[in-house]
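Continuing from the previous page...

OK, I double-checked the sequence for Transporter substrate-binding domain-containing protein against my notes and this is the correct one:
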Amino acid sequence: MKMISSRRRAMQGAIAFAVMACVPAMGWAEGGSLTDIKKRGQLTVGTEAAYEPYEFVEDGKVVGYGRDILEHMAGKLGVKLVQLNLPFQGLLPGLMSRKFDFVATSVGITEERAKRFAFSAPVGIVHSMLAVKASNGAIAKPEDAVGKTVGTQMGSMAQPMIQDFERELKAKQGKGFAELKLFQGYPDVGVALSNGTLDIGVVPSNVLSVQMRRQPGVFRTIGEVGQPRLLAWVAHPQDPEIRTFINQTLAELRESGKLAELQKKWFGAPLDLPTTGYLPAGAL
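Thanks. Re-ran it with the corrected sequence; updated structure tokens here:
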């Protein structure tokens, strides 16, 4: 699942509409087969580069874990890589209109999407992590959240998860948090955690890993809530060869150890990703 709030999605919707309205005029015509890609000499993918460290913009360029994998794929095909940075809402419609060869951004695998789009093997996973200040020795496990001030991003996937967790605490221990604070963005959660406004922050694992890398020794984790959500790339449902190519390349990278190396580079440690059974019932 892509950990972006509905608020953010709504704001991006109008942008996506505007961008996709311009797409036909740009004359893109991608998708099909590997032969098509090699004939064009160009692998064109759609990306929303706003989800660090998976894919994000740095010094005007799209970089990140996904970018490294894509460069390997383009090299394998012997073609140029063109990574289009578009709003998330425009990616799957653009794929169906064959504006690019596949979607290479962190798309959450859901039952509904999997019935319409050809998901690759997972490239990532998101956990809703519970973080505290490293100096706070009084909170050691999720159950210690009773009577504490907890916060997360408003409208995020983490919000219902932490609300469910509080209901579990109330059922087992008779009481829940002192307060649940909701913030506009995850950076606000980090600031509140740093200045002591919050005792516990609920943050996506990838966001937290970036923050902990930039501020080593400031935060530590005490556990997670809810179920992790797998992230994958998406091919056109009529392009099975392209999905197979993505999956075969990921498998090669995994077997060679290169994928774990990239995960350590961008996330600080290898990701625990399933290689089978990751698609829900009824998936393409």
